[in-house]
Amino acid sequence: MKMTVDFEECLKDSPRFRAALEEVEGDVAELELKLDKLVKLCIAMIDTGKAFCAANKQFMNGIRDLAQYSSNDAVVETSLTKFSDSLQEMINFHTILFDQTQRSIKAQLQNFVKEDLRKFKDAKKQFEKVSEEKENALVKNAQVQRNKQHEVEEAANILTATRKCFRHIALDYVLQINVLQSKRRSEILKSMLSFMYAHLAFFHQGYDLFSELGPYMKDLGAQLDRLVVDAAKEKREMEQKHSTIQQKAALQDFSSDDSKLEYNVDAANGIVMEGYLFKRASNAFKTWNRRWFSIQNNQLVYQKKFKDSPTVVVEDLRLCTVKHCEDIERRFCFEVVSPTKSCMLQADSEKLRQAWIKAVQTSIATAYREKGDESEKLDKKSSPSTGSLDSGSESKEKLLKGESALQRVQCIPGNTSCCDCGLADPRWASINLGITLCIECSGIHRSLGVHFSKVRSLTLDTWEPELLKLMCELGNDVINRVYEAKLEKMGVKKPQPGQRQEKEAYIRAKYVERKFVDKYSTLLSPSEQEKRIISKSCEDQRLSHTRVSVHTPVKSNDSGIQQCSDDGRESLPSTVSANSLYEPEGERQESSVFLDSKHLNPGLQLYRASYEKNLPKMAEALAHGADVNWANSDENQATPLIQAVLGGSLVTCEFLLQNGANVNQRDVQGRGPLHHATVLGHTGQVCLFLKRGANQHATDEEGKDPLSIAVEAANADIVTLLRLARMNEEMRESEGLYGQPGDETYQDIFRDFSQMASNNPEKLNRFQQDSQKF
Fold first, then answer.
1. How many CB atoms lie within 10 A of CB 248?
2. What pLDDT is stored for residue 93 in this prediction?
3. Which of 63, 335, 378, 444 shows the smallest number of beta carbons within 10 Å?
4. Contact 516, 483 (CB under 8 A)
5. Cα 735 from Cα 743, distance rounded (Å)
6. Would you state the pLDDT for residue 564?
7. Are 571 and 593 in contact (CB under 8 A)?
8. Strands, E assignment, 54-165
9. Better pLDDT: 30 or 400
């Protein structure tokens, strides 16, 4: 390290030393001024940024208000809601940036000025004091007279002590100077580097956010172009209609409004006739008021304003009569008389009066006919209870089909509030944990890294069916029973919404350090454990009679392949050991699937739970530190992902892949998950592994790749998928489209297979069903 001030010159107290000190002291004073200025500018920038965030938040709230106002327009409401959510997240990113700026620039540099520069100033004061004492001692020693021996000795002793003290203080001062000069570089660069990294993270987050929003904006732009074209077309049609009506109006006689003479007793909306009439009030003054009258549902009603509830004049037209009224001074009057009251009305012309009278009379006759036919209609109707059940089931089915990812995921217990802070209506999710999060907690989860948490939006992102099904298999309640098992025992309270620093510490302790995980807990209740022990003893007796030939897919009814319609599982029977499918009969071991998880290490617990399709227990094993790629040396180095294939659950495979499982890790026979899924004829799993980057060119110890196995087994669906994937891979390599998804036809076919595997797995079970016939 280069010294700013030489220690040797310090001992000499030479003019070079004094000049160096003067230069350093001037430099430090200027440095202090520069740092103070920079800190003040940083504070002003942060305050301005906070004001910008506040104004931006008000603008975003204005967009949300406009979205709520546009609730009758689905396109505008959805678009503005998505945009306001994105802007809200950008505001959160800005807030994080300003917080990090305050920590990196303001706090760090202020600490350097207050601590290190203060130490330098203190050392400088001590040096100046001892330097002055040394100068006084030298002058006193020089002035003492030779014949005064006592004073000579005293002056010499004082000078010696002062020089010794000076050297000590001077060396300390030089050391403080050199340390400060060295530290200033690291402190300044460290704070600026932290500040720049904060900007890098901010722009990356913004880029990721708008990259996710980009496809929706592109679709909206295309839709907007169509709307512009449609609006122009509607404008031309309205202009033509306007011109036609204007021409018609020019020829019309405005002395009477003949357009109001029309009435229709069979109108679809039930309104036979409507229009303005004057009505005489029943008060003492007999005032006349203009009201909007209508004949509908066998009643005569009127309204003062459109939003007002209609006032019924005649409840049942069958009980009233209508007649002309010529004995009053006003013209065009007629009276509607009922058993309890009469209503005097006035039309605008004689033609209108005749039209209203005719409409009332016709409605009276129609009411009589409808009541007479009512009994016949009731006889022809089916049972009301049956009809209501059918309509209820249809509406429920339609509702389920129309559910969004947000609605489906929030139906899971605990998912209506944030998993970590409890804020209501979370719009984000961690797909590898299977939990829902508020926007602030999702930002903290992003900072943990994708090896801990993969964050997606429930409203902005497109959800693959297997991933959505995975979210519905877990949920906040299940995961919190694992990751917060010891929370109450430790006396720790969950952070509240808005407490960002407390949230960051809590989330890191929960998911990274796993402080609240009970290493000795199990998700099984005592009653379930007792059932497992009983089931194990029964299954051990049955296992000795169960044998499956080597390398043969389990096809027949005896093998017990079942299809679970609710989650797409192509399951093996619980009586068959996971490793027994590919072992010679003499080497098969009894199933240990039913061992209590308390006696398993985390890797083995994950291994067994993967076969059992028990996602909560798998999540527990991962929380206990299980290696997701753990290989069982007792069972051909099989991995949990291979066990999930043998268990037949598509969701289990997706859970392992989202948590970092290697899709190409093979067992001792050289077979990876894609090999096993092909042998067993699990089409949905083959589709999933190909989408997740499985290597279909890998061969097992017999030299067979998945395609040759599928061809031998005559499984048309899997052969189609493998050949399409291989063809797509060759096309991308020939065209240099590395990292691109590939041909649209290929994507559409794989999307259809994914939908069937998750929602209609029975359609992919043709291979097993055809083989069972023979």
1. 10
2. 92
3. 378
4. yes
5. 11
6. 38
7. no
8. none
9. 30
Beta bridge partners of residue 766, listed in sequence order: none
What is the Cα–Cα distance from 97 to 196, expressed in whole angstroms? Answer: 10
pLDDT band at 132 (very low <50, low <70, confident <90, very high): confident
For 22-61, give one letter per residue: b (16+ CB within 10 A) or e.
eebeeebeebeeebeebbeebeeebeebeeebeeeeeebe
Q: DSSP characters for 426-488?
A: --EEETTTTEEE-HHHHHHHHHH-TTT--EEETTTS---HHHHHHHHHS-HHHHHHHHTTTHH
Q: Would you tell me how many other CB atoms lie within 10 Å of the CB of residue 641?
A: 26
Query: What pLDDT score does 179 carry?
Result: 75
- Give the pLDDT confidence score for residue 248 in this predicted structure: 76
User: For residue 400, with 0-12 CB atoms within 10 Å meaning exposed, 13-18 middle and 19 or more buried, which class applies?
Assistant: exposed
User: Which 3 state secondary structure label does DSSP give 379?
Assistant: helix
Q: Among the listed ranges 405-409, 469-473, 616-620, which one has the minimum average pLDDT value?
A: 405-409
Residue with tokens 């979205």: 67
Question: Between the CA of residue 420 and those of 88, 93, 380, 417, what are the distances in Å?
Answer: 20, 19, 58, 9
Both tokens of 396, joined, read 């429920």
**pLDDT tens per residue, range 659-703:** 999 999 999 989 999 999 999 888 888 988 888 889 888 888 888
Q: What is the mean pLDDT of the chain?
A: 77
DSSP state, residue 605: H
Given a contact cutoff of 8 angstroms between Cβ atoms, the answer to whether 271 and 296 are in contact is yes
Q: What percent of the chain has pLDDT over 70?
A: 76
Per-residue pLDDT at 737: 54
Q: Model confidence over 78-110: pLDDT tens digits? A: 999 999 999 999 999 999 999 888 888 888 887
Residue 325 parent element (H or E): strand 321-325
Query: Which residues make beta-bridge pairs with 562?
Result: 571
C-alpha 523/C-alpha 163 separation (Å) is 77
The residue behind tokens 């404008």 is 235
Under DSSP, the state recorded for 308 is S
Distance CA(233)–CA(242), nearest Å, equals 14
* Residue 404 tokens, joined: 């969004």
- Look up residue 704 and give its amino acid: K
Query: How many Cβ atoms sit within 10 Å of the Cβ of residue 254?
Result: 6
Tokens of 633: 């040396």
* Tens of pLDDT, residues 302-333: 988 877 788 888 887 877 888 888 888 899 99
What pTM value is reported for the model?
0.43
Instruction: Set out the domains of the chain in order of their start, with CATH numbers.
Output: 7-238 (1.20.1270.60), 262-375 (2.30.29.30), 411-512 (1.10.220.150), 526-773 (1.25.40.20)
Q: What totals of helices (H) and strands (E) does the chain contain, helices first?
A: 25, 12
The H-assigned helical ranges of 693-765 are 706-713, 716-735, 744-759
Q: What is the dihedral of CA 518, 522, 525, 527, to 10 degrees?
A: -140
Calculate mean pLDDT across residues 594-603. Answer: 59
Pick from 246-260, 502-516, 579-593, 752-766: least confident:
579-593
From edge to edge, which strands make up the β-sheet containing 311-314? 311-314, 299-303, 288-296, 271-280, 342-346, 333-337, 321-325
Total residues found in the chain within this entry:
774
**Tokens describing residue 662:** 């290697």
Contact 156, 141 (CB under 8 A): yes
DSSP class of residue 96? H
Cα separation, 30 vs 11, in Å, equals 27
User: What is the structure's pLDDT at 140?
Assistant: 83
Determine contact, residues 757/650, Cβ cutoff 8 Å: yes
Q: How many CB atoms lie within 10 A of CB 640?
A: 34
Residue 727 CA to residue 515 CA, distance in Å, equals: 49
Q: What residues contact 740, with CB distance under 8 A and at least 6 apart?
A: 732
Phi and psi for 16 in degrees, rounded to 5?
A: -60, -40
